[in-house]
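Predict structure. Chain length: 90.
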Amino acid sequence: MGKITIDYRNTDAKQKVCDFLDKWIASPKKEKLEIQLEHVVSGDFEEDFDIGDVTDFNGWQRDWRHHLEYKNHTFHLFGEAWYGRILITN
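Prediction complete.
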């Protein structure tokens, strides 16, 4: 699947994330998945995907790690709050 980038300012950004996750889940060959979200407010993403509050921060830079449970699959999240980016991987 490779790496894709989604601008979270777009109104259909959440749907695009779901579409790519669904496509990866349906794929018989589980390739590396990387979805790079840009221009995203971490709190908005947390709310959109009901992941709960992030508590694993690296300090003053406000980078964080968490996970996303989606359709019985766990995806890893790495957020860069300072830069407004979140990376979703498998």
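Summary: The chain is about 25% helix and 40% strand.
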